[in-house]
Design goal:
Blueprint lengths: L2 H6 L4 H9 L5 H4 L18 E7 L2 H9 L4 E9 L8 H4 L7 E8 L6 H12 L7 E2 L2 E2 L5 E4 L3 H16 L10 E2 L5 E3 L7 H4 L4 H17 L11 H4 L2
């Protein structure tokens, strides 16, 4: 079931009922602080770097990282497939190879790659769910990291190994590392979706709690004013 179908059924009543029954737990229930990575990217004098992360519906992942201090831009889009299939109508089929993803542009002098990954694994999504997040099912909702270079891939792999060896979760981390895959920005109506639609049932249940968890669990990394695409561009 996709989030659009969930919302279409009785104006979101099904989603609210499922939430109340505990069928689809809220993001607030699954968030946890995981250990910081033992291996991080080396200090850099660069003012801007980019990494692409996928963790289910891009609305919530974008919303989280727009509130991370040091992130200058977070754009929803698609990664893992071809350019001609990088559209929402095609990606939702689950047959394009794409994952709903977010391109994060950040200042490594203010926030490290390791801190971004710690937030990603702690509050942005559940990395133990294979090809799904909550009610969203399919390979397009997989947990995946699309590194921009070998160093990012090395840090990400080391971190996944660290989390598994420490048995941080009750299950194995299923996050894949997929280098060399281009990112394509999503349609304009998907950008800043969480901020623009805070009362939508899906957003209220699954996404807004992620930002609350960011503020609660990572107060030093939280920024109240989001880096919106409408202000930063794509």
């Amino acid at each position: 079931m996709t989030r659009w179908l969930t919302l279409a059924l009785t104006g979101g009543a099904l989603a609210i009922a499922a939430f109340g029954l505990g069928i689809w737990p809220s993001s607030a229930e699954s968030a946890k602080v995981v250990p910081a990575p033992a291996v991080d990217a080396p200090a850099s004098q660069a003012t801007s770097e980019v990494i692409v992360l996928a963790g289910g519906c891009f609305w919530g992942v974008q919303g989280v990282f727009q509130h991370v201090d040091g992130v200058s831009s977070a754009v929803s889009g698609y990664a893992g497939g071809a350019k001609d299939t990088a559209s929402y109508d095609k990606v939702t089929s689950g047959r394009t190879g794409h994952a709903e993803s977010v391109r994060i542009t950040y200042d490594p002098r203010k926030v490290s790659l390791g801190k971004l990954l710690q937030i990603y694994f702690s509050v942005a999504h559940d990395p133990t769910q294979l090809n799904r997040q909550g009610p969203d099912v399919g390979t397009q909702y997989r947990s995946a990291i699309f590194p921009a270079n070998d160093e990012q891939a090395r840090v990400a792999k080391a971190y996944i190994d660290q989390l598994d060896q420490a048995r941080v979760y009750g299950a194995k981390v299923v996050t894949t590392i997929e280098p060399g895959k281009p990112f394509y920005a999503a349609e304009g109506y998907h950008q800043d979706y969480m901020t623009l639609n805070p009362r939508q049932p899906y957003i209220a249940i699954h996404d807004l709690p992620k930002v609350d968890n960011l503020k609660r669990l990572f107060p030093a990394a939280y920024r109240a004013e989001p880096a919106l695409v409408s202000k930063t561009g794509m």
